[in-house]
Automatic annotation (TrEMBL):
Keywords: Carbohydrate metabolism, Chitin degradation, Disulfide bond, Hydrolase, Polysaccharide degradation, Signal. It comes from Triticum aestivum. This is chitinase. Coiled coil: none annotated. GO terms for cellular component: extracellular region.
Length: 328
């Protein structure tokens, strides 16, 4: 049987034409229905940061990674060939970051990563790293900043090795620095803390930090983790555990953008849109989707397909609403 909105199409050609114009205009004006965070910086041959933001597909871009810090180590930014921070080559990214922010995309620096030499030895270590991050990427304006003095929107904790010690202190120090800054007093810029824990709960590396309640967004990695990925049939229970444990944060579903991007955890776009996201959206603090990584997303078109499916679904629903309203 044809849906009721389709039956109305025959009522009036003039009404249909007017309503079609309204539906098209609304589709063009509305933002993407799915908030997508993506990691950029670790893929050889991936598009520039500015090009990434200009796709209009993403709400957040995490620059990956500050891969060395703590324990007496000088912080090191590793962008996998995009630029050489040791020679000042990454300072040119300041213009890209400003362009992203002007388009409404939040740009964060991700610390850690799967391969790196990092860890915090004590509270002083946490304080020193917080000061470095604040002065170089958030609130300061040093000429030595690896990103040319760009003011980022926050720090992402992507801790995947070492111990869980003192990341809670790092989060507290960063939040204190922001709250006591002129930026906070002026109220014209906010800084966010985000994290990318593995889906087994509690996370091995970030549990104490997440318990502080200071994180704005948490993109849980539901890949490379057989106990809680989609194929295991336990994703929903793991999702419910995470969203219940983080009531003050918005929680994103972290996925690979390609089956080649992770050993496990890939979900095809159609299944994600029709089966997984409806379940995820039932949580009051559902935030969106996180994708690893921009390089593979660019190759597969995963985020573009997802936004297109979601837009078509929303567009169909809204078109029906317009038609019913016009006939009343």
């Amino acid at each position: 049987m044809a849906p009721s909105c389709c039956k109305l199409l025959c009522a009036s050609s003039r009404l249909l034409f007017a309503v079609s114009l309204l539906a098209v205009a609304t589709h063009a004006a509305r933002p993407n229905p799915v908030r997508i965070a993506v990691y950029w910086g670790q893929g050889g041959g991936e598009s520039t940061l500015n090009e990434t933001c200009s796709t209009g597909l993403y709400s957040h871009v995490n620059i990956a990674f500050l891969s060395e810090f703590g324990g007496g180590r000088a912080p090191v930014l590793n962008l996998a060939g995009h630029c050489d921070p040791t020679s000042g080559g990454c300072a040119a990214l300041a213009a890209d970051i400003a362009s992203c922010q002007s388009q409404g995309v939040k740009v964060l620096l991700s610390i850690g990563g799967g391969i790196g030499s990092y860890g915090l030895s004590n509270e002083t270590d946490a304080q020193n790293l917080a000061a470095y991050l604040w002065n170089n990427f958030l609130g300061g304006s040093p000429s030595s900043s690896p990103l040319g003095g760009a003011k980022l929107d926050g720090i992402d904790f992507s801790i995947a090795t070492g111990r869980d010690d003192y990341y809670d202190e790092l989060a507290k120090n960063l939040k204190t620095m922001y709250n006591s800054s002129d930026l906070a007093r002026a109220g014209n810029k906010t800084h966010m803390l985000t994290a990318a824990p593995q889906c087994p709960y509690p996370d091995k590396f970030l549990a104490p930090a997440l318990k502080t309640g200071l994180f704005d967004h948490v993109w849980v990695q539901f890949y490379n983790n057989p106990p809680c990925d989609y194929a295991s049939g336990t994703l929903q229970s793991a999702w419910n555990t995470w969203t219940a444990a983080l009531p003050s944060a918005s929680v994103f579903l972290g996925l690979p953008a390609s089956p080649d991007d992770a050993a496990r955890g890939y979900i095809d776009v159609e299944t994600l849109a029709s089966q997984v996201l409806p379940m995820a959206r039932s949580a009051a603090n559902y935030g969106g989707v996180m994708l690893w990584s921009r390089r593979h997303d660019e190759r597969t078109g995963y985020s573009a397909k997802l936004q297109d499916i979601a837009n078509n679904t929303v567009g169909t629903q809204r078109s029906c609403t317009f038609l019913v309203f016009g006939m009343a």
